[in-house]
Amino acid sequence: MHFLFWTAAGVLVAGTILRAEPQIDVENRVNALLARMTLDEKIGQMSQSTSMKTPLAESIKAEIRAGRWGSFLNAGSPADRAEAQRIAIHESRLGIPLLFGRDVIHGYKTVFPIPLGQAATWDRELVEQAAREAATEAATEGIRWTFAPMIDIARDPRWGRVAESLGEDPYLASALATAMVRGFQGKSLADALSVAACAKHFVGYGAAEAGRDYNSAWIPEILLREVYLPPFRAARDSGVATFMTGFEALNGVPATGNRFLLRDILRGEWKYDGLVVSDYEAVTEMIRHGFARDASDAAREAATAGIDMEMVSTAYHDHLKSLVERGAVEPAQIDAAVRNILRLKFRLGLFDEQIPPVGEAKPNAESLALAERAALESVVLLKNESGLLPLTEARRTVAVIGPLADSPLDQMGTWTMDGLRDRVETPLAALRSIMGADRVLYAPGLQTSRDTSDAGFAGAVDAARRSDVVLLFLGEEQILSGEARSRAFLDLPGAQEALFTNVLRAGKPVVVVIMAGRPLTFHSVAERARAVLYAWHPGTMGGPAIAQLLLGRRAPSGRLPITFPRSVGQVPIYYAHLNTGRPPSETELGIPMGTPLRPEGYTSKYIDVDFTPEYPFGYGLSYTTFEYSNLTISAPVLHAGQKLTVSAQIANRGKREGTETVQFYVRDLVASVVQPVRKLRGFERVTLQAGESRTVSFTLTPQDLAFYNQQMKLVTEPGKFQVWIAPDAVRGAMGEFELQ
Ligand code: BGC
Fold first, then answer.
1. Residue 400 lies in a domain
2. pTM score, two decimals?
3. How far is CA 69 from the centre of its chain?
4. Is 155 a member of any domain?
5. What pLDDT shows up at residue 24?
6. Region at 733 (left for phi over 0; alpha for psi -120 to 50; beta for the rest)
7. Which residues are CB-contacts of 59 (< 8 A; sequence separation ≥ 6)?
């Protein structure tokens, strides 16, 4: 391993005096430093740049010396960062260290499943460990700030950034946001291998109208408080070091100039003392939004709203000084922002004498094992007709077909600029190594997921004919999801469905494995395939994970963190909806896709597709079956200040071990603000041996039943409630109690 060290030799700048006094608390150190800063230096701290070329240009070095930048993002090699830091500490007037930020979203060199895939694990501890590993690798290379987790509630799979999200549900997203923050930040921010996390994008960015990225969001305050804010509140409560604002205009006011969000809620109600950064050029984008007249106006709006640091655009740099001199921005506002920035730098230990060495991060046996476990747990089994999976030994020869079977880059998914492509193990490679190359016939059929040529079909069909079972890897390429990757159609792109249809004609059972960054619509494929595994973009070790699941060395345990629509026309579709005055009934199901054959009845449904989702939130099969029974509630009535315990028996009725994610839902039957048909209030992963059963319990307090009333007060109202202990958001064992 190659190390670069900073040396402190012969340097006596003011910054080192501060560094030598670790006993005084952070706030005193912040104030002492702030008192010595010029306005220019303060504005420098409030500015973040991405322009760090390799090798470090002399002009950048000069700017760092002059205190022009507080932070760099996605910039430089580890050696450049080390050198830039040396200059900041030893050659700038006050020796204030730089903070290097980067999009370390789901892994660094070792890539874990995309966040949506991680959410499908419903495994807090695993998600925390994945973030810890990502932090360790990134910090080794001098990154001490990641722009993750993205905790925008996402209910629209057209939005490409659904891949980066933790799904549709505030409770699940809050639990996993907490896990990620813990993982990134470790036990202490001051630990050299901790990175500051960033709760983004505050808030409502995921509600972009029509799923089109950057689009406006209109979210009534009640929905904001019930659905969109909770993950951010959870991140704040777990000590997240930073927040990033969204690109969108929320209710007509850009999130980046939104005083209600930043001042009233974040700083006011939540007493947040961390750093708030804008998104990329979002400050000056307020001009195009039609909210600011020019860059000066944008700087004023952003600074006044409470954006501490401007990402990439330079409105602060160019205008804040004159705004302060003109009295348009209060000096106290600048000081407050700089305090938030310095506080974080102190908390990260950046001022302290021991600057860690910058090394080279590499995947290792442990990180790969963790990535494999994460991929294993993220895969959701959607269909398994007559127990085709796991494959038995009788399936001697497999045909591996499809554009995603052997595509390392695509398998890593969005935001993987640091992921090591040559360390990725694809399903093809893994199957060959486990089964022996002679038992694996490979014919991709299509070059990429968007390929429309049928030139490879004949080879694929031929391989299918010669096999005992077809493993067809379909989905979306890496670049079809993520930022600015909105789609108006959710079908399998290119000629993938045609490939499937052709391969099917070979007459062999077909297992479809889908790798994608979002829920896709693939009804007709799912209908005709014998088994379907949804693998998201599973990361570095996706191949071995999928191979082990197919071959039954492990059993699938992923559960959907987001509702899968039957058709894009149903979007947005999510489980925690309100009932309407005319809810449709089960008897209205069975409408064939796309044919308005039964335009009868005046209920809230579609006349050309079932109103139900293709797969509900929480859904996922295993290689065994679980039975839910004996729901018991510890008392018929819940009184203020008390608790209820709700329990049910979960039995493994199959022939092999399996892991079930037991979900706990509540419904408030009558309230002064109509409540969703179900709300998730707990979940637990349980592993049961064949034949084993276990009682799983959840506790419920009146706070768990609280909601925002018409006056935006969090209240509980007496009345009847239903509870479910359930395998997903639509089934389960149900009970009732009363809140008094
Ligand atoms: C994204 C952010 C990201 C930033 C820096 C923006 O375009 O919206 O999520 O952290 O770029 O790369």
1. yes
2. 0.96
3. 29
4. yes
5. 57
6. beta
7. none
